[in-house]
Specification:
Blueprint (H helix, E strand, L loop, with lengths): L4 H24 L6 H36 L2 H27 L3 E3 L30 E6 L18 H6 L6 E3 L6 E3 L2 E6 L5 E6 L14 H11 L6 H10 L2 E6 L2 E5 L7 H5 L17 H4 L11 E2 L5 E2 L3 E6 L19 E6 L3 H9 L5 E3 L3 H7 L3 H4 L3 E7 L8 E4 L9 H10 L2 H8 L5 E2 L22 H10 L4 E2 L5 E2 L7 E7 L2 H15 L4 E7 L1 H9 L5 E4 L11 H4 L24 H12 L3 H18 L2 E3 L1 E2 L2 E7 L2 E2 L23 E2 L1 H12 L8 E4 L17
Parallel strand pairs: 1-7, 2-12, 14-27, 19-20, 19-21
Antiparallel strand pairs: 3-4, 5-6, 6-8, 7-8, 9-11, 10-11, 11-12, 13-24, 14-24, 15-21, 15-22, 16-23, 17-18, 25-26
Amino acid sequence: MRLLRHFAIVIACLAGFAVTGCRRETSAVERKLGFDEFVPSYNRYIRNWLLKQQQSTAEEAAKLTADIAAALPEAKAALEARAAAVALDQEKWEFRLGLGDYLKLATPADIPAGLVWENGLDQPEIGDPAAKKGGIYNTWISTFPPTIRIVGDNANNSFRSSLYDDIDLKIVWQHPLTGKMIPGVANEWATSTDGRTFYFKLDPNARYSNGEAVTAKDYLLTAYIYASDNLNDPYPKQFFRENVAQIAAYDDHTLSISLPEATAFGIVTAGDLTPSPPGFYKNYGPDFNERYQWRLRPTTGAYDVKPEDLVNGVSITQTRLKDWWAEDRKFFKHRFNPDKIVHRVIRDTSKSFELFRAGELDSMLLTRPELWYEKSEIPPVYDGYIERFTFFRRWPKPPIGLYLNVRKAPLDSKDVRVGLSFAMNWKKVIDVLYRGDYQRLNAFNAGYGILSDPSIEARPFSIQEARSNFAAAGYTEEDQDGVLKKPGGERLSVALTYAAVPVLERIFVILREEAKACGLELRLDGLEPSVAYKKEMQKQHQIAFGAWNIQPPQPDFYQFLHSSNALDEKGNPKPQTNNTFVWGREDTDRLSMQVRTARTVEELASAARQLQHIMHDEAIFIPGYTVDYIRIGSWRWMRWPDTENTRFSPPVTFDPHELHVFWIDEEIKAATQAARRAHESFPEVNRVIDVYREAAAPAPTQTPAE
């Protein structure tokens, strides 16, 4: 699904020339990381920013006090509610200013006495003790990534998770079966009495893939890398400023992270950080995006990419580290098993399936009905060489659907957006292309248990309702081709931007043809995937098709709805943010912040449900489809866990491959290949793993720390 082969070769040649040029520049110009200079400067910046917030909040509080005194009874309750929220903000700014420096180098004597330390070792093992190390796992990607940077321009691409998110160890993380906190880079952790600060003892053996030791100071460096002006990426800069109150290093292996407020899942937020190796960033500077475009940041995980294994436009190979520092630790020792993971670029799904069928790829996602019902009804399956699995997971439903840019006419009209919702015949898409196996997605951020509102139902296809809403927007006449228009001649025509891959082309042909009956001209803007992504990030789209894989345990609305991610200081659409709706409003700003900072699950649920209703009522997101299982085909030498605690895979995963619990059995591979040559067969395998099917989505009613 992305780069044409001949184009990839050109890009590879140009990239090789650029890298050579960078090496010459590096040898000629002395570079400095600049971290030591950054720390006092950034600390001053954060303090000044906090003082401005404090002053602004105090002024608002004074005005609210006066307004409440003069308010009529019917307006008083709303003003008092706002005043209570402002009072909490005042307390937050006071707390943050009282912490002192944002990036702090402290001493062990500064660690509070009486902390209760946890280690999470009572949680069940992940994976299967029968797992074997070794072998090569062959898989595929539909496009070569636009960069392998972890942050910066275009870093938030689909391959980033394979390089970083699924590999790099967090400080601590949630067990994918129980939801309880378990060790990552830290062996132990503790929580302050006010629930705002989390202390971590890092494993003294922790190392990066380049051999450098991990230190507590490296987490301060992460804030520098993400928050400095060298990045053209406003979201991480905003996140660190507004969602982290302080990062402190007490010695090489003791760290604390303070949050502005005690939140329902504070330990998850604080524990999510990954460290940055100072040696790797020694040439960090204003040209970061270009200089580090094709440099893989060393991780604390089990895999690395050697320079020669990054073949532009062709493949990326990850190699398992010898003597990985965490390979014998609980929760990791039965994972990350293959010696190598080879990601081959294969643009066409049909071609990738043929390579899978031939045994050149070890596994294949078969969730799409034509792959499951037709293409996989083949001799290698009948003869037991390829095994098939249907795995019911407990991952929240990704918001697959249409993202409407409300700053682009005619989508600035709510009536048009509602009409569009009725004009999209997703049921026909599901019935025709997905054989009725999939379901209609009903809302943005659905599937989070009590944090989602099951009462919201997506608008069904209705010609009458669509035309009624279009008429309310002024489209009351028909053009010669049946497209509605305003009396002045303006046609009801919108462009839909998407990645031009065959399955999406078929979806949007159906939607376009059905929309015609509603008087809507849906112009299909299918682009090469990386081009479509860039267009959306530049906010140049009218409608974009997409989805975001949002990490549990709680939904995220801030980056998608908050006005700070919608417009820049000049009032223009803000590029390189995930608010592709370009939406901003006071009530959604307040509720989005409340989702981030809610102190209880009940408060979080209330705000999240209100936001779901607003998104539905305003019709800025048109839900597409969803499915609560994943279907996988894998050659019989690719083995999956089968233990009491890990049936095939832990349930809280988007794709079981991501947890790296599988392994390649070389003995079974040799036996299978010999059986194929001898035309011998094995029993056919078609397993359904539904042990997690009835379980609730991962939205616990208490905080993980309780």
